[in-house]
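pinging the channel bc i need a second pair of eyes. not urgent but kinda urgent?? the chain im working w is below, pasted from the shared doc
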Amino acid sequence: MKTHFVLASLLLVSLSLVECKTGRKAADKSTSVLSASLETENLLSCCDFGTKMPDGSPVWCEASAVLFDNGTVYVANDKDMPAGLSPVFTKPWKALADSTVRPTPLLAEAFRTTRKYEDFATNGDYVFLTTAFDRVKPGSTDWDSYNTILYWKKGNEANPQVLAPQPGAKNSVAFREQLGNVLAQNRPAFPNGMPYFKVEGLAVMDSLLLFGIREEGEKYDKFDYRVRIVTVPFFVEKTADGERLALRNDWRIVADFDPATVAGLPKPLALSSLEYDRTRKLFWLLTSIEINGQLDAYLWTATPDALLNNRPFTVVRDATGQPVHFNHKAEDLTLIDANHLLVIHDDDRAATKVGPQIRQPNQAAYTVLKIN
C-alpha cells in the first residue's frame, strides 16, 4: 500500500509539471469557463425624436452594428436616413444614453449610399463594416449597394474604402458568387450556388475575415435559419495611391453549428453577430430568435481552434448556471474593456421596454454585460 501511495503521488506531481509546461492553467482567460451578468441596460438615440423621412414617415433606429474604439462608440443603422444624416454615426461612450448629446453622422458618400449594415469588425489596424448581402435584382444594379463591405485604416473613418476585386468599385457585389458557391457545397438542391443568403456576422482575426451566415435557402421567404461561418484571407496590396485590401480566392466553410444541441433553448436560434476577442483569444457569438413576436438572444464563445474546426460553441451562463439571454433581438457586440461587452439590439419596430422606458422609433436598446 505504501508503494502504491508513493507511485500515485509521483504521478500527480508529473501531471502538474506537464500542465504548467503546456500552459493549461485554470486562470488562462483563453480557455477558462466564462460567466456573465447584466450590468446596465438603456436606450440610445440614432437621431432626434420626431425626425422624419422625406415621405413623412418616422425614422426608425434599427441599430444592427456597433464598435467601441478609444472612448467612442460607432453605430450603424440598417435603415436609410434622411439628407444631412447617415446610417453610420458615432457617440461618446460616456454619453451613449444621453439623448441631449446628438450623434455625429459619418457623411462620406460610401456610408450614406450603402444599405442594410449588419456588423463591424476590427483587427486593430483596419475596421470593417459589412452589409447583409441578402438581396440582388437580376438584370439591374438597383440593389447592388446591399452587397458591400467597407473598410478603413483605424482612425481614418472619413475615408472608407470598398472591398472589391477591382479598385474603384462602388460595392462588393462581385463577391456574391464566391459566397453563394461555398454555401452551396454539398447541397445538391443548389447546383448553381446558394440563391439566397444573409450575412449578419463579421469578425477578423489577423488577416482572416469570417462571415457569419444567419439565413440561406431558395429565396427571401423560403429559407432555413443557420449558424454557419465562412472564412476568406485578405492581404495588403500596394498601389500607385498607397495601398488597398484584397481577398485571396480561398473561401471555406469552417463552422456549421446547431444551437438546438443545447437543451432548453428556444428554436430556431440563428446567428446574429460574431466577434473576435484579441485579449482572450476567443470568439463571441450571438444567436437570436425573432418569430411570432418573440424576441430573444443568447451569448456563446468558442476558441479559434474549436471554431475553425467545426466544434460546438459554448453557451455563456450566469452565476446561477442559467444561459445568459436578452429579451431583445441582440444584433452585435463589442468589447468596452477586458471585462465588459456592449450588446446592441435591433428590435425592428417593436415597442420594447428597458425598465420603465418604452422604446421610441428613434431609439435602440443596448445592454452592458460584465464578464466574470
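so Residues 2-22 form the longest helix (21 residues). and Confidence is low (pLDDT under 50) at residues 1-31. — does that match what u expected or am i reading it wrong
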